Every structure is written in structure tokens, then in C-alpha cells.
Amino acid sequence: MSTLQQVAFRAGCSVATASRVLNRNGPVSDEMVRRVRRAAAELGYRGGGRTGNGRPAIGVLIPSVTNPVFAASLSSIQNRAFHAGHSVLIAQSNYDPAQEPDAVASLLHQQPTGLILTVCDPERSMALSSALPPTVLLGNLPTSRFTAAVATDNFAAGRDLTNHLLCKGHRRILFISGHFAASDRAKLRYLGYIRAMEAAGQRPLDTLEISFVSSLEQLDLSDVVARSNPTAIIASNDLLALGVMGALRRQGLSIPRDISVAGFDGISLGLLTEVSLTTVEIPDGTMGAAAASLLLDMAENAAPPRHLTVPYRLRVGGSVRDLAVQS
């Protein structure tokens, strides 16, 4: 079994410097970080934290373990990590920026090989303000400090979905979202909606923000529907879109005859409703696997961080009515 002394010798540095790099507890140049990590990988040195099964671990932070989107990502991360000899440590923030620092600290306490993080807003997250091991942002855009990220173009997805509704003759389109402070993905989708509406010469309706973790079975849209009189509603994710569909039906409204509904993510539940949900499919499983592969390459092979953009696809369902077609 290799030792820290052997890693330091191969990297051409002192044992103290090698220790600082591998334990992330002191200032070291980027070049030295790469040399020490490469030496550790070549020698098979695994001096970091291990889980109870003796494997090194990857730390993963997600907003919610109950959202199928993140469940799909986690499954792919675990599969990729398992084949690389790693376990996965999981923490959740409950879509609360204030919970992120403690969640990340709990992961760091177990000295993971690296981190895969989905934060509410990478530009404002306090969890990203301290020194971290190799880190990949999942679903978030990269920042100046954390340039490794795997995401889709949520702005373009919001624009394209809105254009789809506009092409179907809809002009009064309401955007319903979780709180934008809890998800930069939702905010980017909303900005894409704004861009498409303005480009079409249409006035965007006032958006409705609700909690991502609220009970959707109790969602009441009667006031906003009466006030805005939309012909279509875009929800910032599919779970919310399904909640919107339930709320509209409780009002006695028919989908899509009275109001059309569309969402984002492409979760399988959207195919099991009375009318299938029109949505933007985002390959969350593919993104999770890509994030895990990128992280392991950075941590074990000193590979440079990269920003990977994963394509999305519009999935047309029965939840959107074509107003240009006379009934």
C-alpha cells in the first residue's frame, strides 16, 4: 500500500505540502495540487475519508431527495461511483440557501474525494465561499471559482417552450414557479419565457412564486386564474405542473380545453396522467453520470475542470391545446 511519503516524493514536494493538498487544510498552488493528486492517483493512494464499507466516497448535495429529477441524477452518480470503487454520501438543502453551508459541512466532515453540488444559486451560495475539494456543479451554471459544471441551457428551454405555446395560438401565458431564490434553474426558465413573450410582442403576465416544498394537493389557483385569465400555464418543473393540473381540475376546469399546462424535466409521472404533460425533457440521469465522471477525473487524474452542456428535448403531450385549430 502506498504511503504519503511516496506521494510526496513522486510529486516533488514535502510531506507537509502533500498533506495540505490531500487534506485541503492550507494554501497550495494550483500546479502543486495537480501534481500531488496525479501522484496519488498513479500510486493508488487513498488517504482521504472512507465510508463504513471501506470505500472512498463522493459527497452529493441536492435540493430534495423526493423529487424524481434528483433521484434520477443520484442513481446515475451512484452507479458511476460504484464502478470506480466509491460510495456516495448524500445531503439535501430542502431548497433553502441557509441550509446549504451546514449540509456541505456535514459532507466535508467525512473527507470525501470530491463534491457534486446542486445549490439554489451558485453566485450567492455561502456553501461555495470556503475551500472545497474537487467540486462539480450539477444543474447550475459554472462560476468564476467553480468552473466545473454539468447543466442544460435552462434559459433556452424556457424560451423554446414558450415559443411552442405561442405557435399554438396562446397569448395569455402565466408562469408559475417555486421561489426563484431557491432555484436558479427556475429563474433562468422564467427569463427565457420573458424573452420569448417580448420577442413576440406579448406582455408577460405577473408570475406566481410558491414554495417548492409546499403541499401541491392543497394548491389553490382560483384567484390568480380569475385575475390573469390565462389560456396556458407554464410551471417551472413537472411536479409543480402536475400540482397545477390538479388545482385546475378541482376548480372544475378541463385540461387542455379550458387551460393548457406545460412543464420542465420530463419525469415519467407526466406520461401517466389523464392527458400526457407537454414538457421539456432534461436527461437528469445522463447529467448525473457525466458529473460523477468529471469529478473522478478531476480528483484522481488532476484533469482540468470543464463545463458540459447537455441537450434538452421538447416532448409534446396532450396537455396543450392548439388554439389555431377551430373546435
TrEMBL record:
<protein>
    <submittedName>
        <fullName>Putative transcriptional regulator protein, LacI family</fullName>
    </submittedName>
</protein>
<dbReference type="InterPro" id="IPR000843">
    <property type="entry name" value="HTH_LacI"/>
</dbReference>
<feature type="domain" description="HTH lacI-type">
    <location>
        <begin position="2"/>
        <end position="46"/>
    </location>
</feature>
<dbReference type="InterPro" id="IPR028082">
    <property type="entry name" value="Peripla_BP_I"/>
</dbReference>
<dbReference type="Pfam" id="PF00356">
    <property type="entry name" value="LacI"/>
</dbReference>
<dbReference type="GO" id="GO:0003700">
    <property type="term" value="F:DNA-binding transcription factor activity"/>
</dbReference>
<keyword id="KW-0238">DNA-binding</keyword>
<dbReference type="Pfam" id="PF13377">
    <property type="entry name" value="Peripla_BP_3"/>
</dbReference>
<keyword id="KW-0804">Transcription</keyword>
<dbReference type="GO" id="GO:0000976">
    <property type="term" value="F:transcription cis-regulatory region binding"/>
</dbReference>
<dbReference type="InterPro" id="IPR010982">
    <property type="entry name" value="Lambda_DNA-bd_dom_sf"/>
</dbReference>
<dbReference type="InterPro" id="IPR046335">
    <property type="entry name" value="LacI/GalR-like_sensor"/>
</dbReference>
<keyword id="KW-0805">Transcription regulation</keyword>
